[in-house]
Amino acid sequence: MEQENVFPFVSDELLTALSERFPKQDFGPSESLRELDYHYGQRSVIRFLENKAEEQRENSLTSILDT
């Protein structure tokens, strides 16, 4: 694997801390588009990291099974 493609380990503790700091929210019609964009941008990063963590878990299980 090339060094540039290596993604740092994503811990469950990090995901928990980010989810607590930036929780999912419901918005009403009075919220501005800017506020919605800001919130969903934060949640997008968390979803990306959750997917990376799942990918890392699957890869670690696969590498264990291959040995």
Low-confidence segments, given as residue ranges, are none
Which percent band covers the strand fraction?
under 5%
- Spatial shape: elongated
Task: Kindly provide the radius of gyration, computed on alpha-carbon positions and rounded to a whole number of angstroms.
Answer: 16 Å
Average pLDDT works out at 90
Q: Bin the helical content.
A: 55-70%
Which structural class should the secondary elements be placed in?
mainly alpha
The figure for the number of domains is 1
Biggest sheet: strands, sense, closure? Answer: none
From the N-terminal CA to the C-terminal CA, the straight-line distance is: 17 Å
Would you report the number of β strands?
0
Can you count the helices? Answer: 2
Helix-strand sequence:
HH
Structure description:
The protein is mainly alpha-helical and 67 residues long. It has one domain (7-22, 30-66). 66% of the residues lie in helices and 0% in strands. The radius of gyration is 16 Å and the shape is elongated. The mean pLDDT is 90.
